[in-house]
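It would be a great kindness if you could assist me with a short task in structural biology. The full record is reproduced below for your convenience:
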Amino acid sequence: MTIKTSAARPGMYVHAVEGGWMASPFWRKHLVLASARDVAKLVEAGIGEIVIDTDKGVGPLAPASERLSVAAALEIAAPAVTATPNAPPRARRRAVSELDRAREVVEQSRAAMLRMFADARMGHAIDHGALAPLVDSITESVARDQRALLTVTRLRSKDEYTWLHSVAVGALLIGFARHLGLPQDEASDLGLAGLLHDIGKMAVPSAVLEKSGRLDPAELAVVRHHPEKGHALLLGGDVPDVVRDVCLHHHERVDGRGYPFGLTGDRLSLAARMSAVCDVYDAVTSQRPYKRPWAPGEALARMQSWHGHFDPELLAAFIDHIGIHPPGALVRLRSNRLALVLGAGADDPTAPPVRAFFDIPTQARLPLTEVNTDAAGDPILGSERGAYWFGVSWEGMRAALLAANRDDATPVARAVGA
């Protein structure tokens, strides 16, 4: 499908650009527009039209069904993508944001993970040492701001799911390990385990792995062998034991209803129980061909209701780590504004700092306003579904809104009307 560059938005898969590859501001011929900055690069390069593949990414907006366009989101987030000579010093120092760094980590991971998966498909030995620099980069990104890397990995097309899911699970495991106070070497090994936990899926036929509908019993049986297939690929060499453990046991459940062996919680290691939580959390909060992504708060609430699936103490620790309202979650404030959660509350997990951007009664966008929900007396009433309010544009909008420079948002000490 050919569209005007002015209609481009984050999440689109660009198959070609006007003028050919040499005219493109990107070094790759095909790519997913991961951010508002990527869209801006096309405009700045004078590209008039692009060809997009809607099977691999999001399509154009349907104007009648969208309440707030991505263009409006980009206008809100303009300080994050536009540099001006008169920008304040703090804004200039933030020229390379953590989202930019996270995008670089994802780009670094692409080649490494695809090469690893290609070796697995060929039955070659896995050179886990080649992933060590990537584990270090993910660890550094998580230490700076975990939400940035997870936000970037959310912008995945269907053919990128497996490897980006692995990167996200690696990041979640590293962050979770840090939260639990595990030593750095153990956290790094868990990050490597996350990157390789689904390596056995390379032994699953692509037609089954990429099927958009529900799997039949025979196909499900094939998929359920992937932990054993992956474990076999990791035998030999000096692969850390925890990596093989996570690969083999991340689908086990504490009540014994998981696979491939139906082990109960007392027979599962800490790493296996941690990986079960991180794997499911990323899977259910991701867009899949057969289901909508759950909002982070919705995902955590549902996971809590699945009694017997997860170690309850570990799940509680994970929720404490991610937050009742995780960074990037969409929430409704008492002032009837929609806002994005920016981080954890300093003293109260129910009162995190947020970025308000949309007024519900008037259905109008607002200037970005950062709100301390506790001090401002404007508490969070509950979680909201971005797809309900903004349709298919939500994931791209969220990335653009989070990318906006905090220095350009207006802090609020009191609630609207208080």
User: Anything to note?
Assistant: The first helix runs from residue 36 to 44. Confidence is low (pLDDT under 50) at residues 62-96, 412-418. The CA atoms of residues 155 and 395 lie 7 Å apart.
